[in-house]
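Pasting as-is:
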Amino acid sequence: MRHALLIGIASLITLGAHAADLNGQQLFQHKCAMCHGAVGMGTGLLARRMKPEVAPLEKREDLSAAYVERAARIGILNMPPITRGDVSDAQLASIATYLSKGKP
């Protein structure tokens, strides 16, 4: 039992270290795509409010990095806030830069 727990903790540490090395697109896939990918719940909900073809965040042209960061940290509509324990400030900045196509 103790051995399995140590392996689990080591796996989480390795995953966290790996996530720190990812670029914005990779981080988006790793941290956000489960909801904001092509078939994610977030994409489906956004498709009800806007043109479905631009509901996936990666296809949007109107996102600023500041907006992405603020929406992620405070939550927006059905999306809960994303904590620094889930996504570090540096990771979120990288995701925001990717989604905003470099717009501050």
